[in-house]
């Protein structure tokens, strides 16, 4: 085991409660600082999670605590300046999504990191969830053949009473991003889409972002996007030159909350849901064309029943949809500590940022947004 | 009379504090969130002693200005629902903002509202005297987010009180009940589809909301009177009513008045035993990672149901308070609130005397 990496956190808000438990217990990390503009937030987070220091000023923390890695967990508009400060202080950076409002800014920050010989990593936590890992395995094993379509649908009650996005007393800063609240989720949808489709770029993006609920608080509350990759050799090193279609939906008008993913290949399809975990694989089964539907139902029915039992245990043991974050952090810290390539690379981050840009640009056109 | 700044002013307790303080002649600045209606403060408005300050404690914007010139802060605001961070932001960061702005505005008197939830119920034997000397939780692990965040809030109160020249009286109400708030977790809890009422002769530390509000208004007056301020400065005062009923009696009375959940009585030792077995299995099999319902956690069971002999002697002695309304009167007022407290169609405190914080 190498020496633990000294870790510091900027921003002790809600998402820090997902990062700090890892930093408290990981053998790869030693928590040396928590910084927040609210002194009591920094102090109590440091106390709860065993940090050796707490600060209200970032520059002071970087100077005093000398972290090897800084987690930037503040509202997105502040990411750029804080990432730059941490990189200038010689620290690798793990930044919450969205790292930047535009791909251009992400490019600039990534260039700064490259020039300093440091890693700048955006949190792509859902790529590391059990269900997504299972889908990746199904694809990698060739069980559904070459991927032709990926559908990702996220439904969240962002306008419901009690939602932090719907609070008119304290307007959530995400409303100020180019896609408004959608910007809080669109990075997840984009990196998952690229990862599961196995492409680095979609040449054609047709998107509609809407504000179906109206009012001045939300710029958009709905996304419908169709993505088509022709697998142009210029856009990436794909080996199977087949077109891939992606469908991306965000809705706050359907319930319950869900995060469903369906991947369709030339030989079958696999489906899961990050919020309601299961794995359903529909492929050609032994017994030929006549028996395949029956075998698929039996196999997937059994799998669904097992998922029900497993999800009860998950609920009991607090294995929440955030569990991928711990795996992401663990693999990232292990890679940096042993001088290997982290699992989320600069290409992953920039490809996702460019796709977000494409969707926002296409989706904003003619939307009549509240701006 | 004095000028006081009240947070949580339109809340279940706050509205009574504001209305009673205004009726007692205090000039009240009530902090109201932009999206909240101040109609429940109509009685205070009618006295001419009310000013509405519009603001939210998650931001310091305008708070200092709204507090400038007041004699005391009566801090009632706290978040009772939501996840840990929502409660932390609303209760702890909110209090940090209130106290920082009070300091900036030169306000040195604080009436701090705490809760019985911060007491450590596992520490003492059942049926012993429960007064202000009762120990407070040292480690909030095992208790709920409400207790944890209120404990941090108490820490901030104490730091404010420790600043030179500042005075604080801390009020800890028991289970506050009143209109629309007659059923309470201290009576029992949901366990799947069943409502369990735990214990047969447990007398929960109930206090009727108007009685509690009166204690707070009296505490404010005592703290602001130079002749008596010393007597309550840096004191913790518990507030519970006289003649506490058993939870069975209370549940029966309440069930006759409202559509209360039907409940199954469970002896306290059985519930304590179940919780201990659950905690043992959780420790041994799951390294304590399993999240069990709060009614099945040993510390929570003690906090909610362990019987004690609650004292309100200190509140009576230092504040000159006696619970004005008996259980009968309180239940009657809760189900048919006093006409004077009801909002009138054309009376909205929002429309007049509004200062924006």
Question: How is the topology of this model organized?
Answer:
The complex is a heterodimer of chains A (371) and B (357).
Chain A (H helix, E strand, L loop, with lengths): L4 E6 L5 H10 L3 E7 L3 H11 L4 E2 L2 H8 L3 E4 L6 H10 L3 E4 L7 H14 L3 E3 L7 H11 L6 E9 L30 H12 L6 E7 L11 E8 L14 E8 L6 E8 L2 E6 L6 E4 L4 H29 L6 H15 L8 H19 L7
Parallel strand pairs in A: 1-2, 1-4, 2-3, 4-5, 5-6, 7-10
Antiparallel strand pairs in A: 7-11, 8-9, 9-10, 11-12, 12-13
Helix pairs in contact in A: 4-5, 5-10, 7-10
Chain B lengths: L2 E5 L6 H10 L3 E6 L9 H6 L2 E5 L8 H5 L4 E4 L8 H21 L4 E5 L15 E2 L14 H18 L4 E7 L1 E3 L10 E4 L2 E5 L7 E3 H16 L4 H4 L2 E5 L7 H11 L6 E3 L1 H19 L11 H8 L3 E2 L2 H7 L7 H9 L18 E3 L1
List keywords for this structure.
heterodimer, A: 371 residues, alpha/beta, Rossmann fold, Dihydrodipicolinate Reductase, domain 2, seven-stranded mixed β-sheet, 10 helices, globular, B: 357 residues, 15 strands, 38% helix, disordered C terminus
CATH superfamily of chain B: NAD(P)-binding Rossmann-like Domain
Strand elements of chain A, count: 13
* Morphology call of chain B: globular
Calculate the terminal CA-CA distance of chain B, rounded to whole Å. Answer: 23 Å
| Average pLDDT level of chain A | 93
CATH architecture of the largest domain in chain A: 2-Layer Sandwich
Count of helices of chain A? 10
Return residue spans of chain A where pLDDT drops below 50 for at least 5 consecutive residues. none
Task: Output the structural class of chain B.
Answer: alpha/beta
Strand order of the largest sheet of chain A: 8-9-10-7-11-12-13
Query: Which two chains share the most extensive interface?
Result: A-B, 17 and 23 residues
User: How many domains, in number, for the residues of chain A?
Assistant: 2
Distinct helical segment count of chain B: 12
By CATH's scheme, which homologous superfamily of the largest domain in chain A applies? Answer: Dihydrodipicolinate Reductase, domain 2
Terminus-to-terminus distance of chain A: 53 Å
Task: Specify Rg of chain B, calculated over alpha carbons.
Answer: 20 Å
